[in-house]
Design a protein that fits this description.
The chain is an alpha/beta fold. The protein folds into two domains: 144 residues, Response regulator (Rossmann fold), CATH 3.40.50; 67 residues, Winged helix-like DNA-binding domain superfamily/Winged helix DNA-binding domain (Arc Repressor Mutant, subunit A, Orthogonal Bundle), CATH 1.10.10.10. Helix content is 49%, strand content 13%. It contains twelve helices and seven strands. Helix 4 links the parallel strand 4 and strand 5. It is elongated, with a radius of gyration of 17 Å. The two termini are 24 Å apart. The relative contact order is 0.12.
């Protein structure tokens, strides 16, 4: 597998590079910012990019969504410094294919990376993601906060459902199919919930919803979203 590592922490990047090479993978380069990662990905046509979730700029998800959109054939796996549920949920909404914590052992990180780039993962709907156990735990159910409830009370049932599906990383098309409505209707639900939550983007809405406990980050049970190895897949 041809991999780019994007991480501002050179020692960590060097250690990860060594371990991935020992596992038989080809590390085509390391970048310390998103612009450098984008150049490497475009030039080298890599299979995967393993990136630090927090190094992307002043905002925890600044630019990640654009980078993912520019390289649809590259599987992005984010590694987080801490179990920040809002940032992890936002990364899933941006379209990353895998997520783990830096504190996970290498075997777990490698499992997530392999799952994110496997043929089975490629056959899932776009935007699916494989999570490590610690990332899955970080995205577990949270209780509602009073402040979050104040805004959430203005959401209709359909808008709440749309918000929950955004948190799970679903696209507008997938959301419309799941909800049994037209794409334009699903888009209207999203626009309405953004307005009511005071969010300027879907990523901001996802981060707010997870942080304030507006929705439980639960996974669909009406179809098979479990990998055979026990990891959870988040559908688009």
């Amino acid at each position: 597998m041809r991999i780019v590592i994007a991480d501002a922490h050179r020692v960590f990047a060097a250690a990860l590079t060594s371990l991935l090479k020992m596992a038989g993978h080809d590390i085509v380069g390391c970048a310390t910012d998103l612009a450098g990662a984008a150049r490497l990905i475009e030039r080298e046509q890599v299979d995967a990019c393993v990136m630090d979730l927090g190094f992307a700029g002043s905002g925890p998800l600044s630019g990640i969504d654009r980078l993912v959109a520019r390289a649809p054939r590259t599987a992005f796996v984010v590694l987080a410094e801490s179990a920040d549920s809002a940032s992890l949920a936002g990364a899933l909404a941006a379209g990353v294919r895998g997520a783990a914590l830096k504190s996970d052992d290498f075997v777990e990180i490698l499992r997530v990376l392999t799952g994110a780039t496997s043929g089975r993962a490629a056959n899932r709907v776009a935007g699916s993601a494989v999570l490590s156990l610690s990332a899955r735990t970080a995205l577990g159910p949270r209780s509602r906060s009073p402040r979050g409830h104040e805004r959430a009370q203005f959401l209709t049932q359909r808008e709440r459902e749309a918000l929950a599906r955004l948190v799970r990383g679903e696209s507008t098309t997938s959301m419309a199919r799941s909800m049994g409505v037209r794409v334009s209707t699903a888009r209207s639900h999203v626009d309405a919930l953004l307005t009511k939550l005071g969010a300027h983007s879907r990523l901001e809405a996802v981060a707010y919803a997870v942080r304030e406990g507006l929705v439980d980050v639960g996974w669909p049970t009406d179809h098979d979203d479990w990998d055979g190895d026990g990891s959870r897949a988040v559908g688009d």
